[in-house]
Amino acid sequence: MAKGWEVHGSNLRVYFSYKGDLCREPLGLEPTEENKLYAQGLAATIRHEIKQGSFDYAQRFPNSEKLKHNTVGAWLDIWLPIKERQVAPSTIIGYRRWVERHIRPKWGEVQADRIDALHVEAWTTEELAVLSNKSIKEVLSIFNQVFVLYRQRNRSAFNPVEGVRVTLPDDEDPDPFTLDEIKTFLTTPTHRPGDLNFAAFAMWCGPRSSEALALGWDDVDLDNKLILIRRAVVLQVYKATKTRRSKRQVDLVKPALEALQRQFALTGSLPPVEINVLQRDNRTMRKERFRPVFINQATERPYLDIKQYRKSFWERHIKKSEVRYRGPSNCRHTFASQMLTAKADKEWIIDQLGHTTEAMLRRKYSKYIREDDRQSRVDRANRALGFD
User: Which DSSP state fits 276?
Assistant: First the structure.
């Protein structure tokens, strides 16, 4: 290593250790004695600059192949294919959107080792300020993952995202439908009863919207008042449930059962279709025979994303019902909150939703609906005081 130069082919090149890597850079010089002395002096200068902390790789070797592979853009191009093998298609679409809109335009041509925490802080507070705090956090999470990958190759490298913190506001409270709103919404006339059955089922069963759209008649047991949740559909891709716990048997309370009984008269005799279902490894596809419970009554084809249902039916019907607008995802919030208000067993509610803890149930999906429990609270107080 002390020599610092060598003959490579018909040219000279210098070599040196930098940030834990052995670097070799061609000089484009023939191995004459004069050029060898130059190479020796250059190698000594580089070692001195590295020791003093003043070495600038890009200035010394602006056309280096190493620099081309050291840009943030180059590492984004390594990171994205890796994530494609690890996450669902809908997730990678989101990743690519954040990368191409925010990360690559700002950092794509920049050397990864030339970015420090102050650069990232300034970017976060200035250019990313137009985004919500949640979105900023998602962008920084991706940027951080890229640097984690970068450090696997450059172990002594600094991760400039590591110390950047974004404070998120408190989560918004769930906004479930009240019993009066549910009744108004579900009794508003429509020429698409199947689409209304979907809403009734979702409100009184509580699956994720993507799970409800992927429900097949082979997963329904009307006699025993049970269904099996085992797949979902997001952005036109059928996939296995996100976790093993999400694959679950769900009990049907009376209005959910009645919604499925009404729906059976509409779609129960439809012939099966063959679908490809992406497995949890996000790579394996399995063919399944699928008899959809819910279809788009306008097209007579299965919905392939909740956005289709929202645009095709939900938005117009909720406007017609004059119920304050919330999206169809609030059906899941409504089930959890109505069951909590009705004093249903919390462990049962958690199992129905496919969750693991009561804290998650309360924080994310459920809210005590005071309006719907007012009379029962008055009745309990009267009984306690002996005024029955």
Answer: E
